[in-house]
Amino acid sequence: MVVEDQVSGTIVNEEIPDATFESTEVDSGFRFFVENGFANKIRKSTSEDSIIRASFFSGMGQNLGLVEKTKIVAIHKNLNPSCSGKVRAQSFQVFAKAVADKRGGDANLKYAWYGASRDEICEILIHGFSWYRKAAGNIDCSRRCISLSPAKFSFDSVLSSEVDETGLRHLLLCRVILGKQEVVTDSNQFHPSSPEFDSGVDDLSAPRKYIVWSAYMNSHILPCYIISFEAPYLRDSKGLLEANTIQPRSPWMSFPKLISMLSRFLGPSDMASLNKQYADFQEKKITRPQLIQSVKEIAGNQLLAAVVNLYINESAGTSS
User: Fold this and answer.
1) pLDDT of 268-304, one tens digit each?
2) DSSP sequence for 129-156
3) Where do the domains of the chain lie, and which CATH numbers do they carry?
4) Residues 6 or more apart from 29 whose CB is under 8 A from it?
């Protein structure tokens, strides 16, 4: 059974019985999720808990090292208790039916991950997704779409999460109306290219990114669960990305090894670009600094840092 089917099987009804929730005193670390009744903590070993955990860890790539170094601390269910929350949940059902009617009975509903800071996730639970989000330097920036990761690629959203003051990171597991998808290659696109399409994707055959336009972000995305976890290998990782960290002739990590490890997390199109850049380097069409810059642009700094850090830890474990 594929991960999507497993996750889909966790939610059959609109309501989950109270017996699936923790009744113990609220941990102060999660008070921001539960103090206003926005979410309840799911009990461990329930079907919801077990399948969400399995989906999360299966999306960490084909590497036990990441799974072993990542710990889920809690899973909370979004209750949509406010008036606006109930309206958004009802709106999702209405639009799901409308898209299904438009698409011959199939709205193409999927589960997907969304990684962000704890504060942004709290804002989403209270007010819904926003046209604006905080960028580097605490600067507000507008966005044309919401990007989510398919259920089997949770690690992509893990890299978009931010650690809070308690050392935790947080993801949303959302239900998404995708309808008919189109490949999006233009970063300036902010709506479907025609009425024929409902959402975007980076690759139709092997998607790593679902794209929901901002106009539809609160009608086509329904946050269902908050997953709080520890990923210490992502902490203090900026220093790993200096050019000399990934030199192609490094005695401890060659470019072929780096590319091999990145293949566990990158999609086909990104890997094709990466392999082309490395081939150009071997043929002396580009310089070493140009290759390093290309790798950073294709893979992204956080993924590179995590992969390099993981390799160091694996090498240390092998040599010990």
Assistant:
1) 777 888 889 999 999 989 888 888 888 888 887 777 8
2) --SEEEEGGGEEEE-SEEEEEETT-HHH
3) 3-234 (3.90.228.10), 238-319 (no CATH)
4) 73, 166, 168, 228
